[in-house]
Amino acid sequence: MILRNSLLNLIGLGGPLLAAIFTIPYLIAELGPERFGLLTLIWAVVSYFGLFDFGLGRALTQQLAITWSRDENQDTPSITGTAYLIMLVLGLCAGLIMALVAPLLVGQIKSIPNNSEAINALYAMAGAMPFIVLTSGFRGVLEARQAFGVINLIRIPMGLFTFLGPAAVVWFDEPRLDLIAWVLAMGRVLGCLVHAWFASRSLPKEYRALVVKRAWVRPLCVNGGWLTVSNVISPLMGYIDRFIIGALVSTAAVTYYATPNEIVTKLWIFPAALTAVLFPTFAAQISRGGGEARALFKKVLLWLFLAMTPIVAVLILFAHEIMRLWINEDFANQSAAILRIFAVGILVNSLTHIPFTLIQSSGHARLTALIHLVEFPVFMVALWWFTINYGVEGSAWAWLLRIFFDTGLMFACAKHILAPRVATVKYG
């Protein structure tokens, strides 16, 4: 079941990767390095603000998986209803914050072709933010139900639209970021509605009604709150480098950095395909004692290492050739070394997804939160220093050093949690 669902996730996540391969060169050529750099920043901002569910999507998955494993299905309406209401409020707050800070964010970036165009693009995505946040809640129900076939039936067209939508705007109209953003926003709204319908249909009729109960606020928010610390800081560390480069170097430099980054981070489809299935599975197994989780942990690490290593080796050995054939010779000269650095990091970081998922699904999200709270200021200082002194390639080295530090701490915590004495899920 785990392998089957992981393969479904891999298919769902791999479709957008193929779209990215074909559309990114076209978008770079039509938009130019400056505008494409801004488009990658918009993708980054939307992805980051989408985490304003404060970990409730994952907390909802965990709580439902534990509840159903204990045959306490009668609590389903109150768990889902309470989570949805909190997430709606958070989504509205996220949209408001994005709209308020849009001029400030744009003002911090160098060499912007059209400020008003970039600000209007962020306004468009701010309007879609409540729907983006709610989508994680509906997906959380589907993941708890192990409905990965349905999830990927939705994910494939949504992922394709992320890249094909901007390409279509450029093809039919003109290379304006605000038009692209409005098209992407409408896609997010539609995706939320489809997720909502399938999430409701996945539950038995007697459990589809939504009930809000104050008693569920604390268990959802406490664990979700710790999940949020990691879910906010970790992606921030993954995206902040682009803004630092834009502020210290230029938006064109962001393109040379973000494009190889887009290549390697798409390889996260392999750990993501596994961890989406592992999260509810680990939660249920650890709530029953944890012996099954120890065996599963070792097995999936081996699967992931065997799947990732050949791909990473190709990226390292043929980085220049890949960038030359994909974009052009000049682009390859600027970004091949960066691609090699990212390739090493993505192999290490992909393996780290397994202990990270184990820690959070076991109810010890506080551990990952504390790790990321320690990492963040150290990484910011290193990122600033490396970028100032070594430019774009220095930013990549700072990213790689953080990855190694993060991996060591995550595996140490996972070893502690998998010890036989840990047998129950805790909150906080």
From TrEMBL:
<feature type="transmembrane region" description="Helical">
    <location>
        <begin position="265"/>
        <end position="284"/>
    </location>
</feature>
<dbReference type="InterPro" id="IPR050833">
    <property type="entry name" value="Poly_Biosynth_Transport"/>
</dbReference>
<feature type="transmembrane region" description="Helical">
    <location>
        <begin position="7"/>
        <end position="29"/>
    </location>
</feature>
<feature type="transmembrane region" description="Helical">
    <location>
        <begin position="179"/>
        <end position="198"/>
    </location>
</feature>
<keyword id="KW-1003">Cell membrane</keyword>
<keyword id="KW-0472">Membrane</keyword>
<keyword id="KW-1133">Transmembrane helix</keyword>
<keyword id="KW-0812">Transmembrane</keyword>
<dbReference type="Pfam" id="PF01943">
    <property type="entry name" value="Polysacc_synt"/>
</dbReference>
<feature type="transmembrane region" description="Helical">
    <location>
        <begin position="118"/>
        <end position="141"/>
    </location>
</feature>
<feature type="transmembrane region" description="Helical">
    <location>
        <begin position="296"/>
        <end position="318"/>
    </location>
</feature>
<feature type="transmembrane region" description="Helical">
    <location>
        <begin position="338"/>
        <end position="358"/>
    </location>
</feature>
<feature type="transmembrane region" description="Helical">
    <location>
        <begin position="41"/>
        <end position="61"/>
    </location>
</feature>
<feature type="transmembrane region" description="Helical">
    <location>
        <begin position="239"/>
        <end position="259"/>
    </location>
</feature>
<feature type="transmembrane region" description="Helical">
    <location>
        <begin position="396"/>
        <end position="418"/>
    </location>
</feature>
<feature type="transmembrane region" description="Helical">
    <location>
        <begin position="153"/>
        <end position="173"/>
    </location>
</feature>
<dbReference type="InterPro" id="IPR002797">
    <property type="entry name" value="Polysacc_synth"/>
</dbReference>
<feature type="transmembrane region" description="Helical">
    <location>
        <begin position="82"/>
        <end position="106"/>
    </location>
</feature>
<feature type="transmembrane region" description="Helical">
    <location>
        <begin position="370"/>
        <end position="390"/>
    </location>
</feature>
<protein>
    <submittedName>
        <fullName>Flippase</fullName>
    </submittedName>
</protein>
